[in-house]
Please model this.
Amino acid sequence: MTRNDPSPQPATGSLRLDKWLWCARFFKSRGLAHDAVEGGHVQVNGERVKASRHVRVGDRLRITRERERYEVEVTGIPARRGPASEARQHFLETPESEAARAHARELDRLTAPVASGRPDKRERRDLLRMLKGRG
Model:
């Protein structure tokens, strides 16, 4: 392969965990992926690991991102960070994980929105009416 050849190099048998998470599009930047691993939000085969650990095909990852939890199995090592459709080919999410995330999304949809701070004049009047029984 020449230096000017635009074709990607063949994927090796392993890749750093933070780089794999970035390539698989779980995090927007490699720095965020590194911070998540170091913060204990990513486990490999049930163990807390460092960002420099190499991920291999067959490893099971538990990824916690904000309020979402993914449980995936590594099915491939990406050669580059490509589009999302390409990234999805490198992991397989467990059915339990998909169901749990769908359930959490449904609960979020059904819950009332959280107040953004102090009520404004109209909201305050509505609250007073409800409290005094005139509403």
User: Anything to note?
Assistant: Residues 95-110 form the longest helix (16 residues). The longest strand covers residues 68-74. The two ends are 76 Å apart (CA to CA).
